[in-house]
């Protein structure tokens, strides 16, 4: 949802409201987001280890996106419209396991560029991100299809590197509680654990009801923890 025009526009508003102007997109890949933010008035650094990616970032045209933002700004009455004038755009090769501009950025956007590393390399990446971020500011780590133990590894790594991960302890407890059930066919639907109706439940209604009740109890306790945190 973040990458939809309206959501992205709202995020720009939030950044502007909090005086966040200098952004870093490490491991930017072929995303158009760095250039879009630069075209909308932010000071952007886009880095990647690939020469092909850097060539793409230097040449990509985002004029159509900017027109959509201009249309959105014309309709907006909030008073926090992005400036929609050219910012600055710096694009260079860089391995984000190595230091990059300490205490420089108001916000960092790591988009699917953290989860593939080993725990040791991921720790180096997290420390570089933390060092490059201005104190008290925010880094956004987008992941894809990461759950269970792997998500624990990522969040543990971020916390150990100095980041504050919202609801870290509660979310970790929730994942561990689900894992401890031993139920292998749990899926999260809008954040709520749900059973997939596999063959083992087809002729065992009692087990289906018992496992469903167990998941419901865990989710209720999870919600209570969130509400009292």
| Beta-strand share of residues | 15-25%
Outline the low-pLDDT stretches: none
Instruction: State the strand order across the main sheet.
Output: 3-2-1-4-5
Helical stretch count? 9
State the secondary-structure class: alpha/beta
Helical residues, percent: 40-55%
The main pleated sheet reads as: 5 strands, parallel
Elements, N to C (H/E): HEHEHHEEHEHHEEHH
Oligomer: single chain
* End-to-end C-alpha gap: 26 Å
Radius of gyration: 21 Å
**Mean pLDDT over all positions:** 89
Tell me, briefly, the overall form: globular
Record field, number of beta strands: 7
Summarize the structure.
With 229 residues, this protein is an alpha/beta fold. Helix content is 48%, strand content 18%.
Summarize the structure in words:
The protein is α/β, with parallel strands linked by helices. 48% of the residues lie in helices and 18% in strands. The protein contains nine helices and seven strands; from the N terminus they run H-E-H-E-H-H-E-E-H-E-H-H-E-E-H-H. It has helices at residues 5-17, 33-39, 51-59, 63-75, 119-132, 148-160, 168-180, 199-202, 205-228; strands at 22-26, 43-48, 88-93, 105-111, 133-142, 186-189, 192-195. The strands form two sheets. The chain has a five-stranded parallel sheet with strand order 3-2-1-4-5. A two-stranded antiparallel ribbon has the order 6-7. Helix 2 (33-39) links the parallel strand 1 and strand 2 (43-48). Helix 5 packs across helix 6, helix 6 (148-160) runs antiparallel to helix 7 (168-180) and helix 7 (168-180) runs antiparallel to helix 9 (205-228). 25% of the residues are buried.
């Amino acid at each position: 949802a973040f990458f939809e025009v309206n959501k992205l526009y709202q995020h720009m508003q939030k950044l502007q409201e909090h005086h966040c102007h200098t952004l870093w997109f490490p491991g930017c890949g072929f995303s158009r987001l760095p250039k879009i933010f630069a075209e909308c008035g932010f000071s952007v650094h886009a880095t990647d280890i690939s020469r092909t990616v850097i060539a793409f970032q230097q040449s990509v045209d985002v004029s159509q996106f900017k027109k959509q933002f201009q249309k959105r700004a014309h309709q907006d009455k909030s008073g926090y419209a992005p400036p929609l004038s050219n910012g600055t755009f710096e694009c260079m090769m860089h391995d984000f396991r190595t230091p990059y501009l300490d205490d420089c950025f108001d916000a960092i956007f790591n988009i699917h560029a953290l989860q593939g590393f080993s725990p040791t390399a991921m720790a180096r990446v997290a420390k570089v991100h933390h060092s490059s971020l201005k104190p008290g500011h925010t880094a956004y780590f987008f992941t894809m299809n990461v759950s269970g133990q792997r998500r624990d590894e990522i969040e543990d790594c971020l916390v150990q590197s100095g980041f504050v991960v919202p609801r870290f302890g509660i979310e970790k407890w929730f994942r561990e509680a689900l894992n401890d059930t031993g139920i292998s066919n749990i899926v999260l639907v809008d954040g709520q654990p749900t059973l997939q109706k596999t063959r083992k439940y087809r002729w065992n209604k009692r087990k289906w009801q018992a496992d469903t009740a167990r998941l419901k109890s865990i989710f209720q306790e999870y919600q209570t923890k969130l509400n009292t945190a």
